[in-house]
Prior knowledge:
This protein has helices spanning 11-22, 53-60, 80-95, 118-125, 129-143, 183-194, and strands spanning 2-6, 26-31, 43-47, 65-68, 99-103, 148-154, 157-158, 166-170, 181-182, 202-208. By secondary structure, the chain is α/β, with parallel strands linked by helices.
Amino acid sequence: MKLALFGATGKTGQAFLDLALAASHEIVALVRDPAKLAPRPGLAIVAGDARDDDAVRRAVDGTEAVVSLLGSFNRKPNTEVSDASQRIVTAMRDAGVERLVVCSTIGVGDSFAPMRSRLFKLIIRTLARHIWADRERQERIVRGSGLDWTIVRPGGLRDTPATGRWTLIGSGDPQPAKVAIARADVAACLLAAIADPALSRRTVCLYTDAAA
């Protein structure tokens, strides 16, 4: 399958890229700095910003599905991720590409109330409130896109080896006590989600399986 990938230079994006190429998928990655990605068989690199209409169209055109791992650490009021998501959605509709898998984060929307960490809730409400607000906007754009979308909200990301065992729960369902998950497991889940019709137009939370 030929996939457009946004957020390829982040740690989770690189994990996804490794898995997808190993599975013989073709990847078109849009990156601001092509020097951050080494040329590899099956990888096409498009230089540009995800908030630039032309660059996004060049990345999406001719692909069969789109995966977004875009993120921002900007604590000031901003619409960086949601603006990019709107451009991705528009480019997909124009190109006739239907499948969209988006990596969001725990604490967005109805996954906030079930969170068991009071400290994490406090951080979201204070220091990171603008980051989460932009994620809220991003998810609204995706859900209203009319595309065949899936939103995955992983727990706390960790740079640890993949367990190969992860679980998905409803977006507002009770959460486990420990929500950390390896980035490699997130990447595996996103790759599997592309071809999973049971996840069509669903928002889910992702955690390490308690038995792992």
